[in-house]
Amino acid sequence: MKHTNQQGITVLGGLLSLAIVGFFLTAALKIGPLYLDNSFVKAAIDSLAEENIHNMSDAEVRRKLLTHFDINNVRDIDTKLVRIKREQTHTKVSLNYEKRVNFMGNLDVVVRFENAYDSAR
Fold first, then answer.
1. How far apart are the C-alpha atoms of 100 and 94, rounded to whole Å?
2. I need a labelling partner for 43 at 20 to 30 A (CA). Which of 13, 101, 112, 116 fits?
3. What are the boundaries of each domain within the chain?
């Protein structure tokens, strides 16, 4: 008879693996929604390509973005942060913002987003 030694993960190794998986799962659940919201913000800004924003007022541009935010349930982005710069032949719209989320304990994560659209493109 041949005896083989059983090999597997130890209790300490299992707990360490569980802690690492838990850390990354927490990170994904806390930070992931910020990136999801920003994808909707980017889509709203990119949708300005379908409009003639050069002939729209600043308030109309902001209203158009706010409509997209409402449809996609993006509630905590202030359209007052939208910067509209008008040139002679084109208009640039940008929305740069940062979000802070409590990660765990007294540790916060700050994520900065920069979104822009130029009607000259």
1. 20
2. 101
3. 33-118
What crossing angle do the helices spanning 11-46 and 58-71 adopt, rounded to 10°?
A: 140
Q: Are 97 and 81 in contact (CB under 8 A)?
A: yes
Count of Cβ atoms closer than 10 Å to residue 27 Cβ: 13
Exposure string for 66-84, b = 16+ CB within 10 A, e = fewer:
bebbeeeebeebeeeebeb
Give the position of tokens 């158009």: 64
Residues with Cβ within 8 Å of residue 31, at least 6 apart in sequence: 101, 109, 111
The structure tokens listed for 111 are 């994520």
Q: Cα separation of 32 and 120, whole Å?
A: 32
Contact 97, 38 (CB under 8 A): no
